[in-house]
């Protein structure tokens, strides 16, 4: 996959367009996301590795970024931090298959504006990237509820602790009795 800039046709060289960095090994030049952004007049920079994404950050001003968590040569969290430190006004959306509550919190602390799980509708993803009002969006109803994400995270931690309530409660930074009540109300196993 090419890591160079993708240009739309029909724009004079003197017109400066808003740059969007897409740092994701799964997104290619022919993806619907890239085509959608180019059709709306954005200058798209593709990066399939963390090093390529950092090179794009050094070479041009980035206004928007879409970042995956996992790269062969680094972590998306480090890339989100690099974007936030280089371009504090850049709106960064983490779009990943590895979305869970812990990763979302870590990404936001690193500087991400939003975190979305893959797959996400292209129009919705671009709407979030551009910070549009999406309350009436049809796609919004298909996103998981915050409680279901919370329960999934609790279940993952509980299972990783071998169904040991005390250990899971310590790892979740909650009281053991609170975790027991949550488990009783919505069986996670």
Provide tags for this entry:
single chain; 189 residues; alpha/beta; Rossmann fold; Arc Repressor Mutant, subunit A; 2 domains; 16% strand; disordered N terminus
Count of strand segments? 8
Tell me the distance between the termini: 42 Å
- Class by helix and strand content? alpha/beta
CATH architecture title of the largest domain: 3-Layer(aba) Sandwich
Summed up, the domain count is: 2
Low-confidence parts lasting 5 or more residues at pLDDT below 50? Answer: 1-16
Report on the architecture of this protein:
The chain has 189 residues and is of the alpha/beta class. The protein contains 8 helices and 8 strands; from the N terminus they run ββαβαβββαβαβαααα. It folds into 2 domains: 5-139, Response regulator (Rossmann fold, 3-Layer(aba) Sandwich), CATH 3.40.50.2300; 146-185, Arc Repressor Mutant, subunit A, CATH 1.10.10. It has helices at 32-39, 50-59, 76-86, 101-110, 122-129, 146-160, 165-172, 176-185, and strands at residues 5-6, 19-23, 43-47, 64-67, 70-71, 74-75, 91-96, 114-117. The strands form 2 sheets. The protein has a 6-stranded mixed beta sheet with strand order 1-3-2-4-7-8, sandwiched between helices. Strands 5-6 form a two-stranded antiparallel sheet. It is elongated, with a radius of gyration of 19 Å. The model is unreliable at 1-16 (pLDDT under 50).
């Amino acid at each position: 996959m090419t890591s160079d800039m993708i240009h739309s046709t029909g724009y004079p060289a003197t017109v400066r367009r808003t740059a969007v960095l897409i740092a994701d090994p799964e997104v290619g030049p022919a993806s619907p996301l890239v085509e959608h952004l180019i059709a709306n007049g954005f200058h798209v920079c593709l990066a399939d590795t963390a090093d390529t994404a950092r090179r794009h950050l050094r070479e041009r001003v980035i206004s928007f970024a879409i970042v995956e968590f996992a790269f062969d040569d680094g972590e998306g969290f480090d890339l989100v931090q690099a974007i936030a430190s280089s371009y504090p006004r850049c709106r960064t959306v983490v779009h990943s298959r590895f979305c869970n509550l812990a990763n979302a919190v870590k990404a936001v602390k690193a500087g991400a504006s939003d975190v979305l799980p893959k797959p996400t509708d292209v129009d919705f993803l671009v709407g979030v990237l551009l910070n549009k009002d999406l309350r009436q969006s049809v796609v919004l109803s298909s996103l998981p509820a915050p409680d279901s994400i919370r329960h999934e995270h609790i279940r993952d931690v509980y299972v990783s602790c071998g169904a040991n309530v005390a250990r899971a409660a310590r790892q979740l930074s909650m009281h053991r009795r609170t975790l027991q009540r949550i488990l009783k109300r919505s069986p996670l196993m």
